[in-house]
Amino acid sequence: MADPATLLPLLLLAPALVVVAGLAAAGGAVTSGDRATAPVVETLRLLTKQRRRTPADDPLLARIGLTVLPVAAVLALAVVPVGLPGTGAPVDLEVGVVWFNAMEVLAWFAVWTAGWGPNAVTALVGGYRTLPLGLAYELPHMLAIITPAIAAGSLDPARISAAQHGLWYAVWMPVAFLLYLVSTAAMAFWGPFAAPLGRDLAGGAGAEHAGLDRLLLHAGRWMLLVAAAAMAVPLFLGGGAPPPITGPDPFSGPAWSWFAIKLLVVLALLLGLRRVMPVLRMERFATLAWVVLIPLAVAQALVVTVVVLV
Amino acid sequence: MTLLIMAAALGAVAVVTGIAVFVVDSMARATFLLLASFVAVAVLLLAFGLAYLGIVVVLMMTIEMMIMVVFMVMLMMNPAGLEPMTMVHNRAGSRVIALAVFVVLAAGALLVPWPTRPAAPGDPTTALGADLMGPQMLTMTVLGLALLATIVGTVALSVSPGSRR
């Protein structure tokens, strides 16, 4: 357990996620017409600012929530096979998919407490918006991540990624892949699902947070988005393996390089999604999720199950 | 021995945070403490090597706490802001009930003749699924799907599109 070779990836996990999240945020700044250096400038600005208190607030609870957000993102990434030697994941967990899901729902709690803490109306309404958002995206999301697990017969992301040589799960379960991409944006309350931090609420759950608190919220959100996008690679895109279309003699670079390329593609898809979609109203999304997306996800899981059983 | 100490410490955390749920005067803090109590129990399960069970407890309890917040919004007099409130009503009665339930459960845990493990169980996740569902796996799956469809159908029918304000 205390072998330095296994501890090193764990120690590097958080800094690596921060760097990639920063790159993703730079990409996000460019696609929304800002400078690529905007995230760095904003980070430095927030670090020099004081935190803000409001009358009769609950700063302890809010800060617990705000701290949980980036921590949950790092813990979620810990079970993703990122192409390290061995099984590929910093932590080899047999039920990694369930762990990932559990860490990612901690974000609901984080945003809700962040909105509750300041005792201010816009923040509170933003925090409460997390609940319909979560209830809407979570069931399609669970069905979407369990479908590759059914096909591979394992809850271990490394085994799932190894099971799809020849045919990526994104190809043979496209509905699950699309639902996963949508729920990735939703779980990071980002892009079309940014209603909890909505502009119509002057920033929503983040409206009253300044300085380090605000940095934790926004950096944590990008970290969560990157961690969720990273999970798409082993679940749907064959993990660290080269694309099967290159035939029997592919350019087999190191696994981490293929992982990085695929992660960039997933992040680019998500940035594109934010460009083309407006922020959805939670009630509309909830209706869509429950009436359309859940039946779609169930149908996809059913098809995969029948194919696997037969 | 390490496991025993760890179990005792986590059990103490679970009990203390559980008691604190009824001491604090904010529903958000009560929600957080209840979640912390459940997470302590989940870590205990993880320590015993029951990874799936422990992680599912974290997953389900987090979602459950958040759904409890939905009910707070629906049912509480003042779901907004940090108005002091109490989680306790009918103090005498609830104390008697809580103590009685605790005694029964603790006595059960101590007095039940626990079976000794017949053999190495293999994958605990598979064993859990087989034990919970047994030969009724198909029935339970179909039932779960039917329940989900019923919930979605009921909500979809009961919410009229014009009720939006």
Automatic annotation (TrEMBL), chain A:
Bilayer topology annotation: Multi-pass membrane protein
Subcellular location per the Swiss-Prot or TrEMBL entry: Cell membrane; Membrane
Transmembrane segments: 6-26, 60-85, 105-128, 135-155, 167-190, 222-243, 255-273, 285-309
Keyword terms of this UniProt record: Membrane, NAD, Oxidoreductase, Transmembrane, Transmembrane helix
Molecular function in Gene Ontology: oxidoreductase activity
UniProt key word Acyltransferase: no
Pfam families registered for this protein in UniProt: NADHdh (PF00146)
Record keyword Transmembrane present: yes
Source taxon at top rank: Bacteria
EC assignment: 1.6.5.11
Family of this protein: Belongs to the complex I subunit 1 family.
Name of the protein this chain belongs to: NADH-quinone oxidoreductase subunit H
Native source species: Actinomycetospora endophytica
Automatic annotation (TrEMBL), chain B:
Signal peptide: none
Membrane-topology annotation of the record: Multi-pass membrane protein
Main location: membrane
Keyword Nucleotidyltransferase in annotation: no
Transmembrane residue ranges: 6-24, 31-49, 55-75, 96-116, 136-159
Record keywords, A-Z: Cell membrane, Membrane, NAD, Oxidoreductase, Quinone, Transmembrane, Transmembrane helix
Source superkingdom: Bacteria
EC nos: 7.1.1.-
Chain's role: NDH-1 shuttles electrons from NADH, via FMN and iron-sulfur (Fe-S) centers, to quinones in the respiratory chain. Couples the redox reaction to proton translocation (for every two electrons transferred, four hydrogen ions are translocated across the cytoplasmic membrane), and thus conserves the redox energy in a proton gradient.
Protein name from the UniProt record: NADH-quinone oxidoreductase subunit J
Organism: Actinomycetospora endophytica
Lineage: Bacteria, Bacillati, Actinomycetota, Actinomycetes, Pseudonocardiales
